[in-house]
Amino acid sequence: MFSILTFADDLNKKRDGVKIKLAGNSSITVAAHGTPAFFEAFRKSRARLVGDEAPTPEQLQQIAAEAYSETILIGWENLSDLDGDPLVYSKAKAAEVLADPRLERFFELVDTESKRVANFRLAAHESEKKR
Fold first, then answer.
1. Which residue from 5, 35, 40, 131 has the least number of CB within 10 angstroms?
2. Which residue intervals of 51-86 are DSSP H helices?
């Protein structure tokens, strides 16, 4: 019999994020995409940056970077900046990094992990799979 539990999310993981391991001892902490908090942060950033006007691609990237830094990219550990210096996490620094066109692949990593269903699955479902 197919269990509806397959579709169950851990709401704490969706809100508080999950640690995604990168190379070595580096990691990012990512919350789920598509939450009400994300859409509200996106709406506020858009209103502040462009009002009722249609955003340019550059403005849209800034809007997304701000919304992601507020609600999705919750933290990071052991990352360095483009010069090799330690990158200390803050929401402002996250917005800066996510808006940097040279770091588009990093933004894509954050976006992909925030949408990966398995990252936010209810732990009970994981134990079901082991049976």
1. 131
2. 57-71
Q: Partners of 77 in the beta sheet?
A: 27
Helices (H), 51-115: 57-71, 91-99, 104-115
Domain ranges of the chain: 28-129
Sign of torsion, CA 95 99 102 103?
Answer: positive
Kindly state the DSSP code that residue 72 receives in the 8-state scheme: T
d(CA 10, CA 117): 10
Give the type of residue at 86. Answer: P
pTM of the model: 0.87
List all residues 6 or more positions away from 16 whose beta carbon is below 8 Å from its beta carbon. 31, 74
- Three-state DSSP at 29 gives strand
Side chain identity at residue 38, one-letter code: F
Give the tens place of pLDDT for each residue, 56-114.
999 999 999 999 999 999 999 999 999 999 999 999 999 999 999 999 999 999 999 99
> What pLDDT, in 10s, does the model give residues 99-129?
999 999 999 999 999 999 999 999 765 554 4
